[in-house]
Amino acid sequence: MQPEIEHLASRFREELAGVADERALEELRIRYLGRKGALAGLFQDLGKAAAAERPAMGKAIHALEQVVAEGLAARKTALSACAEERLPAGFDPSLPGRRPWRGRRHILSAVLEEIIDIFRGMGFSVAEGPEVETDYYNFQALNFPANHPSRDSQDTFYVDDEVLLRTHTSPVQVRYMETHPAPVRIVAPGRVYRNEAVDASHAAEFFQLEGLYVDAGVTIGDLKTTLRQFAREFFGPRAELRFRPHFFPFTEPSAEADVLCFNCGGEGCRICGGTGWIELLGAGMVHPNVFRAVGYDPERVTGFAFGIGIERMAMQRYGIEDIRLFLENDVRFLSQF
Amino acid sequence: MLISLDWLRQYVDIEEEPRRLAEDLTMLGLNVEGVEHRPNPFAPLRIGRVLTCERHPNADRLSVCTVDIGEAAPRDIVCGAPNVRAGQEVPIIPAGEPLPDGTVIKKGKIRGALSEGMICSVRELGLGAEADGIMVLESGLAPGTPLSALFGHEDWILDIDVTPNRPDQLGYLGVAREVAARYERPLRLPATEIPAAALAAMEPVPVDIEDPADCPRYLARRLRDVTVGPSPAWLCRRLESMGLRPINNIVDVTNFVLFETGHPLHAFDAAKLAGGRIVIRRARPGETTVTLEEKEVALDPADLVIADAERTVCIAGVMGGANSLVTESSREIILESACFHPGLIRGTRQRLDLTTDAAYRFERGADAEMADFASRRVCRLLAELAGARVAAEPDDHYPGRAAPRKVILRVAKVNGLMGTDLDAATVEHLLERLQLPAETAPGGLAVTVPSFRRDLAAEIDLIEEVARLYGYDRLPLENRVRNTLYATRLPEERLAARLHEALRGLGCQEVIASSFMDARSLDAMRLPGDDPRRRVVVLRNPLVSFNAQMRSTLLPGMLEVLKTNFHRGQEELRLYQIGRVYRRREGTTLPDEPVHLAVLLTGHAQPAHWRQPASALGFADLMGVVQGLQDLLPDLAPDYAGDEPCLVPGAAVHLLRGEAAVGWAGLLRPSLMHDLKQKRDVFALEMDLSGGGDPGQRCFAPLPAYPALLRDLALLVPDGLPWRRVAETITEAGGRLLERCGLFDVYRGEGLPAGHASYAVRLVFRSPEGTLTDKQADKQLTRVLQALDKTLQVRLRS
Questions:
Q1: Contact between residue B683 and residue B602 where contact means Cβ atoms under 8 Å apart
Q2: pLDDT value, residue B514
Q3: A249: nearest CA in chain B?
Q4: How far is B576 from chain A, CA to nearest CA, in Å?
Q5: How confident is the model at residue B480 (pLDDT cuts 50, 70, 90)?
Q6: Binary contact (B568, A106; C-beta < 8 A)
Q7: Is residue A99 part of a domain?
Q8: Which residues contact residue A11 at a Cβ distance below 8 angstroms, ignoring those fewer than 6 apart?
Q9: Residues of B in contact with A220 (CB under 8 A)
Q10: In chain A, which residues have their Cβ closer than 8 Å to the Cβ of B606?
Q11: pLDDT of residue A147 exceeding 90
Q12: In this structure, are A152 and A50 located in the same domain?
């Protein structure tokens, strides 16, 4: 009897190994443990066996029964685990993913926000002022005399003789200093307007960011340091600035700051017009007449101011060559940033 | 201001390369915007020696020459001139090179004989009119020497952007002064002495200045026996380098001196001045005059004119008159060298729209002291070039004469602003280089400001002079921007940042549209006359006439963006804008500028995807945006009773904050998009954000400790009964154990009575005190069903 049991055991192991799914496993279980299964057959044989052999034989059959039961159970666990991990037919991980509509900031709004953040990190707070302004705040308080050629560079939209659309964010300087004692350190972002024909490099409405720092002992060195820090944050750590004298009625000394051409590194190329430098922004030390207009004592405080064109910054950084794209709002343009 | 380097070198030595000079001037504040090289037009030509000269075998009038032009082998050149001989020194243009007029001579065969260039005539070189033969040279220079060694000149033109504070830079002398200061080189002033032989006693010119404030100086000089004729070549060349066409020696000399000194002058034909007198006065009402450009202009009493005894002969400082013009036949002229009130000239220039070199300078402020210098310079040149006899004494009326200005400059203030540590001697030396003499005085350096620097009026102006000559780039970097001032955020900034974040999360693309608005858009929106959006700010001088208004609502701009994108095939649009609108307010000078938010949705609710067909956007998608806004603005509530002229009635809500209506949301009337080819549903909202939004600190709500019980209902709801009423009734009847009531399906169709829908509603019951029993939940459910039945006649779907 014993060899027969052992043979059955080894056959079971072979068959178990060949089972691929739960149905085959169930069939195997029935063949061995079913009412008419192999083990049932063995137990019948046991009844017919000689009494002396029965205890050993019974023990061997029980051992086999246990092996079969354990084997089936283990196989069942393995098969069901496999079923849980099984993927549906035709599953293809390379099919496109699904995501909802994506929202974005307008590129100008994003660049403006980034610039504000850079200055906020240097302790500048945001101040705001009206876009429809008086001649006083836009010009007179900023040391632009009436009927003077210095107004020629600022083609102005007028509502009436006294009211106009601000041509720069500088009136916010005046309004802020009128209502806040020194020291002040602000940036004033916003829209400004110039009555000029629109083309690839000129817009009638654009964004500026004004900066102002007034305190005891502020120097041109502070201005240079602040703007260099800004340029390095915005254009990268190797950005180089140069300052050259210029004229603005409301600052003196006045300067224009150029950034070293990122395209040619100063060699001179098409982008920088061969000069190696790209005009970036205007700046200077607040003119004593502006301090007088707002009731500050120019003997006690000095300060610097600067104005950054936001479109220009975005155009420089992203290589955009037509300023009209910003206001056109073609979503194929806007979605690139 | 264009500056010819060749001309500029007359007044100061310049050794620097033109681009180096341009860079140095730029760093000094004279922004050089362009550097143009004008090569010598004779550079491509060579001096040649005719070695042999034979008759052309096939043409009697042609000669075949071999010419040495300094190359390894002589060139074969066919020449048609009768005067060509062996041994001559001649100008050669090699084949392939351009003549001064641009013509290029090609290599080729002439009647079978090779010709590798051309022997040039005077006319071909542009050096004269005669052309009966080739030009024969006698320079003795080696063959091959460029002809530019004998003729023409190379030049560089700098284009300087002169800022309005520096009228002194509108003349060569002014620029030369800056160059001299920069490189510490002497300045050479042009000669102004009038040769004694040319001086003669003449009767004075009667000059009458009606208001000295209008004309601080008027210097007239009489010149007689002038011979009007063409200007010499050197003068023509100077004017041509400035882009001017020479006219005659009188006009050319006044123009030359205008550029040389920066001081405008004018010459009258003395014979044409009625009464022989000069009156500086305002124009009479209704007066007209004809300018030298033969244009009749109407004058205004605000215009300053030069008149004779009877009529206006010149618009002062702007343009001369046709009636007193110097012509070929003029023999006696009166030369004006004056100084006028800058504002007057500017007013007239703007009113008459006459931009001239003279007006450009006078409106920026002319140097009264320069008037005499410039006048003497013109007289000297006319004595030389026009044979003029000059009045020994000018008629100089100078009511505005003033002592030179003195400005005190404190060295400590210089260093305080520049962040430097310069001593007084260094500062003094820098000033001296700029021709600003300084002497030690109580309180600082007393600086004498010369008349040509009218812009230097205060200490700060001198500090700028010191700073720019010292060099901005040499000023030390500092960092006194210490954190004694902390950056704070405005509430508006915080709200805007949160709104941008929320709207991005809702899948909306920000747009920034124009602040201007088409005047007709408010009519398209059907706004009544008393709508606050009708209080528009109108521009007096708009860029384009139909965009003369500032926007009073964001919607028209959003629609423009929508149309732009539609026309380019972009039809899935979820756009938002946060921006100011502008509305007139009675009793204030400036309008209100509240910040608005607008959202515009069209297309599909989701991006097209293979897992699921995209469904069209619906009103619910817009209300989803409103709900997103409610997260930030908890007091924002829709008012379903509202209507809005630009929205489809019934698909419109007002947005309220407390009692105040702050905006609207809904389906736009299709007529607003009538110019689009395809009709589409466009949903939009616009609201005023000026109510602020910081919701303040929200209180934490503890998480529920006990499980909830769910009850799903299918309610039969008649059409026309708003869900809002059903929800309110359920919420009220559900009591405090009803945590939430949510609609999860709406079914219309078979198996329902007509005019009804089945609403699938899930009620969530929960108690904060303990685990609810089914009995407790069902008790509340019964109350809900009773209330629905009683107040709304809504029952369960059977």
A1: yes
A2: 96
A3: B165
A4: 9
A5: low
A6: no
A7: no
A8: none
A9: 417-419, 467, 472, 475
A10: 100-101
A11: no
A12: no
Q: Do residues B267 and B336 lie in contact, with contact meaning Cβ atoms separated by under 8 Å?
A: yes
Q: Give the count of domains, chain A.
A: 2
Structural domain ending residue among the three candidates A34, A53, A86: A86
Of A106, A147, A243, the CB nearest to B346: A147
Alpha-carbon distance values, B687 to B352, B633, B653, B657, B673 (Å): 47, 12, 12, 10, 21
Interface residue of A104, A150, A256, A329 to substitute, partner B, most B CBs within 10 Å: A329
Which pLDDT score, from 0 to 100, does residue A243 have?
A: 96
Query: Using an 8 Å Cβ cutoff, are B259 and B315 in contact?
Result: no
Which of the listed residues A51, A86, A121 is the one where a domain comes to its end? Answer: A86
Q: What is the pLDDT of residue A15?
A: 86
Structure tokens at A22: 């739960």
**Amino acid (1-letter code) at residue B660:** A
A195 shares its domain with A54: no
Q: Which of A100, A123, A215 sits opposite B507 (nearest CB)?
A: A100
Domain identity same for A73 and A114 = no
Say yes or no to pLDDT of B378 above 80: yes
Residues A181 and A295 in one domain: yes
Determine whether the interchain pair A157/B539 forms a contact, defined as Cβ–Cβ distance below 8 Å.
Answer: yes
User: What residues contact B745, with CB distance under 8 A and at least 6 apart?
Assistant: B758, B759, B760
**Residue among B87, B76, B143 at smallest CA distance from B114:** B76
Answer for the pair B310, B284: CB distance below 8 angstroms, yes or no: no
Report the percentage of chain B scoring pLDDT > 90. 82
Res. B182 pLDDT band, cuts 50 70 90: very high
Residue B84 belongs to what H/E stretch? none
- Encode pLDDT of B382-432 as tens digits: 999 999 999 999 999 999 999 999 999 999 999 999 999 999 999 999 999
Nearest to A222 among B479, B489, B512 (CB): B479
**Residue A198 domain-assigned (yes or no):** yes
Within this chain, do residues A32 and A159 fall inside the same structural domain, yes or no?
no
Q: What share of chain B is helix, strand, coil (3-state, %, to 5)?
A: 30, 25, 45
User: What are B265-275's pLDDT values in tens digits?
Assistant: 999 999 999 99
- Side-chain half-sphere CA neighbours of B90 within 13 A: 29
How close does chain A come to B331, measured CA to CA in Å?
38
Q: Answer whether residue B37 shows pLDDT above 80.
A: yes
Q: How far is A314 from chain B (nearest CA, A)?
A: 14
Quote the pLDDT of residue A1. Answer: 60
Q: What is the CATH number of the domain that holds A298?
A: 3.30.930.10
Chain A residues touching residue B515 (CB < 8 angstroms): 131, 191, 193, 205
Average pLDDT, chain B: 93
Structural domain harbouring A39: 2-86
Per-residue confidence (pLDDT) for residue B794, from 0 to 100: 93
Q: What is the pTM of this model?
A: 0.84
pLDDT the model gives residue B256: 97
Is A174 inside a domain boundary? yes
Q: What is the pLDDT of residue B123?
A: 87
Q: What is the pLDDT of residues A85-100, one digit of tens each?
A: 777 878 888 988 988 8
Q: Could you report the predicted ipTM of this complex, rounded to two decimals? A: 0.86
A92 inside domain = no
Q: Which of A191, A221, A228, A187 is nearest to A206 (CA)?
A: A191
Task: Measure A81 CA to nearest chain B CA, in Å.
Answer: 28
User: Does A225 contact B478 at a Cβ distance shorter than 8 Å?
Assistant: yes
Which residue would you say has higher pLDDT here, A38 or B594?
A: B594
Q: Are residues A68 and A156 in the same domain?
A: no
Q: How far apart are CA B347 and CA B361, in angstroms?
A: 14
The answer to whether residues A305 and A171 belong to one domain is yes
Size of interface A-B (CB pairs under 8 A): 238
Pair (A134, A69) in one structural domain: no
Distance CA B451, CA B600 (A): 63
- Residue range A293-319: mean pLDDT, rounded: 94
